[in-house]
Amino acid sequence: MSLTERQIEYGFNYYFPDEANKIKSVVELNEFNGERKLSINCTQLDYWIEKNGKKAKDKKRILAEWCSFLQENPNAFDELYFGTRMPQELFEAVCHQRGLKRLEIKWGVYDSLKSISKLTEIEFLDIGAGSAVQSIEPLTELKKLKGLQVENFQKISNYEAFSKLISLESLFIDGDRTSPKNIRIESIDFLRKMPQLKCYRMLAAILVTKDYSPILELNNLEYLALRGRREVKKMYGDFAKLPKLKWGWGWRER
Cis link prior to 180 (omega < 30° from 0)? Predict the structure, then answer.
């Protein structure tokens, strides 16, 4: 199944209230009632602890319970969303969910993505604020991946490995857009090997080569979002000639 028109226009991980509100949000494991889709917010609990009359030691217990459950019940979930800080141990536990189709992580302190190669069924992946990530190579094992966003990978500048993701239709490579804090990308020549892409976004990023021409080979591209740098503005006319391009920003005059 390909991306829907809505996913192409807005992004595969866009927050649609009518859909997001259907996903239950929990803190403790005892709030889980067998839902296949779940938002787990089991860290950064100072306010929650105070509000609910809990003790500081409960923070470690709550995290430990979730880690144990995720490891011991590998078929529990289809979709998982994490809106609070994800430590490495929680990331490792999540990677035991072998049937997971979708995973969205707002931010975390993980430096290794090695275990993510276990998620062989995953189709949509959003790894937010991964400033400590050392390698993107494990992501190339995800052969069913259709949508991928990586954000603020400060230690990665070569994204050539992504060309191995032959099923990928949507690729977002961003720096920290809230700071903003740019990432450096050596080259986007790898896009020449990804003709199947329908969506490409590159924001809060400095392209070292300043060569955006590989995008012109993406004849299936329908969505493009770029920062309006001088080099990009010079190519407005060329981008407009892409046969299917109609969504996004930064590639044409407003």
Answer: yes
**CA 58-60-62 angle, 5° bins:** 65
- Decide if 189 contacts 180 (C-beta within 8 A): no
Are 149 and 122 in contact, with CB atoms under 8 Å apart? no
Kind plus residue range of the DSSP H or E element containing 172 = strand 170-174
How far CA 186 is from CA of 156, 158, 189, 210, in Å, comes to 9, 6, 9, 9
Instruction: Please check whether residue 107 is in contact with residue 131, taking contact to mean a CB–CB distance below 8 angstroms.
Output: no
Peptide bond between residue 74 and the one before it cis (omega within 30 degrees of 0): no
**3-state secondary structure string, 118-165?**
HCCCCCEEEECCCCCCCCCHHHHHCCCCCEEEEECCCCCCCCHHHHHC
- CATH number belonging to the domain at 5-10+25-249, selected among 3.20.20.70, 3.80.10.10, 3.30.420.40, 2.30.40.10: 3.80.10.10
The per-residue pLDDT for range 96-106, each reduced to its tens digit, is: 999 999 999 99
* Residues 157/160/164/167 CA torsion (nearest 10 deg): 70
How confident is the model over 61-72, as pLDDT tens digits?
999 999 999 999
Q: Which secondary structure element, helix H or strand E, spans residue 92, and what is its range? A: helix 88-94
**Confidence band, pLDDT 50/70/90 cuts, at residue 239:** very high
Are the beta carbons of 171 and 198 closer than 8 angstroms? no
pTM of the model: 0.96
Tokens of 90: 């929680």
The candidate with the shortest Cα–Cα distance to 220, out of 237, 193, 199, is 199
What backbone torsions phi and psi does residue 151 show, to the nearest 5 degrees? -130, 130
